[in-house]
Amino acid sequence: MALSFAAPGIARAHQFGIQVGAGIANSHDVHESKVDLGGVWDPQWSWWAIGGWHFTAVFEGHIARWYSSRADVHDNIFEFGVTPVFRFIKSSGAIRPFVEAGVGVRLLSHPSISRHYTMSSAFQFADMVGVGASFGSRQQYLAGFRFQHLSNASIKEPNPGIDFEQLYVQYNF
To answer: Is the pTM of this model over 0.90?
Structure first.
């Protein structure tokens, strides 16, 4: 019974998107490059309209690959995770700018990048802030910039964390 109520919302194809991103981390003498593939679900929630802007939320799932030519333990690390993302977006117009923020969880294939730099645990929290814009005849395209910090929140020491600056593009079906 509950599925019959949910099915019409699930079937709406424009609620799903694919995201591709790339970023770099140059903190703590770590020089990582990151390529990210994400799936996005937009439940089309909208609330608190203020002066032609409103809040919305999307849910993202990510698979990323880190690469470092300077790593001496693991030069390839894979990252898997999910993040709810909250946006404050312009409600109308051909180009709709937004600011966004989210906190999610990540699982790394290897917590150690080099003998001198380890994230200590495979489990990480990922918080991010960013800016971007949606555009297109159906607002089906998005482009943005994000600052992302991964850290295990001192669950295990040392906890140096890592900071990525990322550019991304997204297409919504």
So the answer is: no
